[in-house]
Write a structure and sequence with these properties.
Helices cover 50% and strands 21% of the residues. The chain starts with 26 loop residues before the first helix and ends with a helix. The strands form three sheets. An eight-stranded antiparallel sheet has the order 4-5-11-10-6-2-3-7. It has a three-stranded antiparallel sheet with strand order 1-12-13, with no helix packed on it. It is elongated, with a radius of gyration of 28 Å. A hairpin with a 4-residue loop joins β4 and β5. The structure holds flavin mononucleotide (FMN).
Length: 354
Amino acid sequence: MASAPWDHPFQIPNKQHQTTCEVAMSTDEEQQHRLDSFRQAAGRFASGVTVVTTAYDDHVYGITATSFVSLSLNPLLVTVSINVNSPMLDEIRGSGVFAINVLANDQQHVSSYFARRGRGRSKGAFDEVEAHVETTGAPVVTGALSWFDCTVHTMLDGGDHTILVGEVKAAGGGTGEPLLYWSGNYRELGQEEQNAAEENALTDDIHRIADSLSVQLHMHGMSTAQLIEAQQAVEPEAAALAARDANDEQIAQLRALVEEAELHTGDAACFNPLSLEFHDRLGLLSGNPAIAAAVSALNRPRESRYAADTTSERASRAAGAHRWILEAIEARDEDAARRLMSEHLGTVAVGILH
Ligand SMILES: Cc1cc2nc3c(=O)[nH]c(=O)nc-3n(C[C@H](O)[C@H](O)[C@H](O)COP(=O)(O)O)c2cc1C
């Protein structure tokens, strides 16, 4: 069988494993080979593209960098690695501030502008790129997807680069897609990835809302009976809306989830998370963020309750109910989906309350 290029990765030669059949390499060649292997391996890492900027004396400076890493939440720290030969480092030592600008997919020209030696140094303002000041005085590139405005926290030795650690004083940004860099070329997210990214962002937001709502409800104190009432108020409607609005791909994913859960009714540790995800997913498929967040928040106390109570008989009953609800959604039968969910919650409630 013909081998694909990635069957022979660019391995860093290991002397101990060299066979006598291999042509011996000179030290220089070996060094070069290691370097090429390193470059190729590093080039396989996909990243966003940033421009690091600072303002010092009467001028501004910027360079393109992909070595950005978000480092710490407490304190808020980021890092970026700058070549030791870049005059940028002295500028940053002088100013004590810098901004990291994450470029949007329509800003490839900005990346190219700042990737030419010395080009990023301008008197007063950048000649070809619009920027403004936020908090520290470092230029923030207008239209950047996001930005971090920093003071210098530390500068660390990193071989031929200096690792710049920044303490984030302000950060911001908007929506849009990122400019990407992979394997020596600029890239953009494909439409599929864009849709998925937007969907994931929405799901993340809903889960964040659900987290804080569930904490508030917990602190407020909510009885089991109230929890069940709340579930009865939102989940049947979520199922009905899913029957009305979910697209075919979403329904196929729901089916896969139900079928996966059916395989694990004998093992509560496996079944429970899949069962909870079914309820969570229905909330999301309702297409209504308020309902999705409420369903997800009400799922949180369920987690602990189910952990103690699930027998394989209960799991089989729940799996059967999930399948009926799924079939009603597949049939686009809103009334059946609403009714079946309500009945399912009623059965679960009897199990929990008695
Ligand atoms: C996509 C891309 C990523 C880069 N990432 C870095 C980086 O992380 N650190 C760095 O020092 N240089 C990086 N460079 C190179 C600098 O942008 C480039 O050498 C620039 O000319 C430096 O300007 P200066 O010599 O005026 O400092 C990158 C260049 C490109 C095109």
